[in-house]
Design goal:
The protein is mainly alpha-helical. The protein has 25 helices and seven strands. Helices cover 64% and strands 5% of the residues.
């Protein structure tokens, strides 16, 4: 193991000095210059953990499941706990093939301890979010400094898309934790002179990621780490330090058994549905109406990482400039194209440690976004595994902005944020007036938040102008954290009231009756979660009419917009109408003589 060169103390080390500025120094390999961990680092990590727990767990169980996304995982977890089948996942008591079961296992285990509830369903995702924030802060603290670590941790914690998803019971935050943790573990293993324990942890995290979402957990780390070490001339050394043959065995031992058992239990159907449809077809064609333009995930990063994403373009430009400066002389002096190509890894191998981290983070961000951008099927949370890289780049950019003489580097983005908040305050009433069925109280809540952010960002801009840059950064981070607590959480409660409203109460009502119950003209897999029973799913009028014609009495949960057409038909009685939803009882005026037999597929909610 090579000897590690310890960095100067944080107080005297020139943070963001020559290596952050891009100027050339004497070469040093990427294993040098790591920060000594001290009591301040530990205290900061504990404080971030405490804030993260408060931000992510506050009022976590105070609103119903959001349909369909959350219910697609919470309901299978409830059914797993109820029916005792921990091998195959079910949705509405029908086999569900779409994802491996690790997140559902975790949710079911928490439900067994905490009871079946929204809080239990969401706790695993929230905990994963907290741990990824803490891990990112520790990583940046180790390889940059404490200030940068805190900035990275809090920017990730309060990024809107990351914050919102961490408070949902879906797979994307756990996947981001396992993937991000693995990538950071391998990077650290190399920097720490080939630490085998860190590399082993990396392989274990990849296995957990595979058990969370499948093959993407192997593709992304291999692409990011492989390209980084190939272009920095360290691929052979990385191969030796990461012992990939043994690592592949570790992943296989941990992940393959369940896949083998599931494929055998479903007689091959799981292979067809998950590997072919959910992975290959979802990547190469439109699945479940999730098609989006090629720039979709770039927009997701820029919007989901606001306001910190406004710093990413200049961070990317700085990284590219550093690479150009490093490559200019060796490439230009090479005589042949082959020699120029060979000069690239040799030159990049001489990057200063912080430059190398900056390059690594940019690759991580760009490769992740590019991978999901070329996929035909796209969803916002797919971008989340790139967010730790964005947090690292933001933290490094803040270090440059604090250390460089020119104030514009920090003043320009902060001023843009301040102006945007002022404009947002005045146009908010017009924008929200276009939203149908807007819940009362959203407008004053949003305007208050925008006004507070406008004031905070203006103070931050003034602080930069008078050269109090660290204070400006603290204001930006603190105001974003308060925004999450004071706006985002109450707004979530109000949106839940609008979108889900009385559905849990209606579902519990039909859960107490013995007659068939239908969900009509909407995708709401959360209804069986609250009903604690199997529901029938009718997507069309023809299906609903056909099924009800063979039933003496049934119950129907549907949208209020269907009230008129339904009441025009004989047999319907309104039991409850509230918000967007309607609960009816159907008494057949022409009672059938034969017992009711449900049609094939009537219980499937897999649309």
């Amino acid at each position: 193991m090579q000897e590690k060169v310890q960095a100067q103390p944080l107080e005297s080390r020139p943070l963001g000095g020559p290596d952050l500025d891009g100027s050339k120094q004497e070469s040093s390999n990427s294993e040098s210059s790591v920060s000594s961990w001290n009591s301040k680092s530990t205290l900061a990590l504990v404080a971030t953990f405490a804030v993260g727990v408060f931000v992510y767990f506050n009022a976590l169980g105070s609103f119903p499941l959001f349909n369909p996304d959350e219910a697609l995982y919470a309901e299978p977890a409830r059914e797993m706990l109820k029916n005792g089948d921990w091998l195959t996942t079910h949705l509405n008591y029908i086999v569900r093939y779409t994802k491996p079961p690790l997140v559902i296992w975790a949710q079911a285990a928490l439900m067994s301890v905490l009871g079946v509830s929204e809080f239990a369903a969401r706790s695993f995702g929230a905990a994963c979010g907290v741990f990824l924030v803490v891990l990112t802060q520790a990583f940046v603290t180790r390889y940059v400094n404490l200030r940068a670590g805190i900035v990275a941790g809090f920017s990730l914690m309060t990024a809107p898309l990351f914050f919102g998803t961490a408070r949902e019971c879906i797979t994307d935050i756990p996947l981001s934790l396992f993937l991000g943790g693995a990538i950071m573990a391998f990077y650290a293993a190399f920097r720490e002179g080939g630490n085998k324990l860190l590399a082993t942890i990396g392989y274990i995290l990849i296995a957990l990621a595979v058990m969370t979402k499948g093959p993407v957990a192997i593709v992304l780390p291999v692409a990011i780490l492989g390209f980084y070490y190939l272009t920095t001339g360290s691929l052979k050394q990385a191969w030796q330090r990461f012992f990939p043959i043994v690592g592949a065995l570790i992943v296989a031992v941990l992940a393959l058994p369940w896949f083998i058992l599931e494929i055998a239990a479903t007689k091959g159907e799981y292979f067809q549905e998950f590997f072919i449809r959910e992975n290959f077809q979802r990547f190469t064609s439109e699945v479940d109406s999730h098609k989006a333009p090629i720039w979709y995930h770039v927009a997701a990063v820029m919007g989901g990482f606001l306001p910190f994403s406004l710093f990413l373009p200049q961070a990317a430009v700085d990284t590219v400039q550093v690479l150009k400066d490093r490559l200019k002389e060796p490439v230009s002096s090479a005589k042949t194209i082959f020699a120029k190509v060979l000069a690239v890894p040799t030159a990049l191998n001489q990057l200063e440690p912080t430059q190398s981290l900056q390059y690594f983070a940019l690759l991580w961000l760009c490769i992740t976004v590019a991978f999901f951008s070329v996929s035909v099927s796209k969803l916002l949370p797919y971008t989340l595994p790139a967010f730790p890289a964005a947090a690292i780049l933001f933290a490094l950019e803040i270090e440059r902005a604090i250390k460089k003489p020119a104030r514009w580097r920090l003043l320009a983005p902060v001023s843009i944020i301040a102006v945007a908040c002022v404009i947002g305050y005045f146009i908010m009433p017009f924008v929200l007036s276009k939203v149908r069925n807007l819940t009362e109280g959203v407008l004053p809540l949003a305007q208050t938040a925008w006004a507070a952010m406008a004031v905070a960002m203006t103070l931050a801009a003034v602080s930069v102008w008078i050269n109090k840059r660290q204070i400006a950064v603290a204001i930006v981070i603190a105001s974003q954290t308060l925004l999450c607590v004071l706006l985002a959480i109450p707004l979530t409660l109000k949106l839940s009231q609008l979108w889900e409203g009385p559905l849990p109460e209606m579902a519990r009502y039909v859960g107490k009756v013995s007659e068939p119950a239908f969900v009509f003209d909407m995708r709401k897999p959360g209804v069986p979660f609250y009903a604690d029973r199997q529901m029938s799913q009718a997507w069309t009028w023809a299906t609903l009419t056909s099924e009800l014609s063979r039933i003496n009495r049934a119950y129907v949960i549907t949208r209020s917009r269907n009230k008129g057409p339904l009441l025009e038909m004989p047999g319907y009685t309104v039991i409850k109408e509230e918000g967007l939803y309607l609960l009816l009882r159907f008494d057949n005026p022409f009672p059938p003589k034969e017992p009711y037999t449900p049609s094939p597929g009537i219980h499937s909610m897999q649309r």
